[in-house]
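Subject — a protein and its fold
Encoding — discrete vocabulary of local shapes:
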Amino acid sequence: MGVVAVSVCMLVGIVFICEIARKAAVVLLSRRRKGGDRGIYAAEIISTIQLCACAHELRLLSEDAPGIALSLTYVVSVVHALTFRGAAGNPTALLERYWCASVGGTCALLRAACQFAAAAATGPLMRRAWDFALSELHERHARSGFACASPIDDVHALRAAGAELACAFVVHAAATLTRGVEEKYRVHAVAAVITTVVYAGGSTTGAVFNPALAFSAQFPCSGSTFLKNSLVYWLGPVLGIACSLLLFNKVSLAFTAKSTTHKDQNLHAVKKKKRN
């Protein structure tokens, strides 16, 4: 339980520090011209660091206490949703916003660049934190040279990419279908889906479904190539989001439009019959 307590304290500390940094960024950037634009990029950097740092700690904890790590995944997912304040923390989320014309192409690319930069910086930051050996788990990980093994080492690339595609599709579908739900309930519903997806796909790929997070957590691990990681952790989630967007934004809207037209035609026919 001492290991779990230290990891929980680490997670709380990460969120607390990032929340202070977000508030400080808002105060500092609001005093400057065009501070609002810079605030978006600052929020992406800070929130992505929070996301990746928590994921690193949970991944490490899952080696000793997988059940507790899974439960904490739900809690952390809720906390992320409540604290990000408009930051995406995921390049595929920016793809959706660009698709829906809520952000421009240049802004989306710059925010994605901020996410990858933050993801790349998180690994060294967490290794510095683990160097303090606050728990036996951290000390053991430091002695191993912070080594990690890729979960897709023995998994065929297409199967692994399909798993990441399915994870991204399910999570995005849940977020889309709960848009009409009050936010305080919606975050719990989506977090529950994320936890279920992590449980189902974790043994295959780690269930990352986030290209920036994968760049921080999976790409440095041994047992896989950059090309295979790119196919699985970048192309898989992008295709998953694209499939979800096509299904809910194109196909379902087309069927809804046809159904509405058909009902209008029937109503018009009934009215015409009554007149006659």
About this structure: The chain has one domain: 2-275. The domain at 2-275 is CATH 1.20.1080.10 (Glycerol uptake facilitator protein). The radius of gyration is 22 Å. The chain has ten helices and no strands.
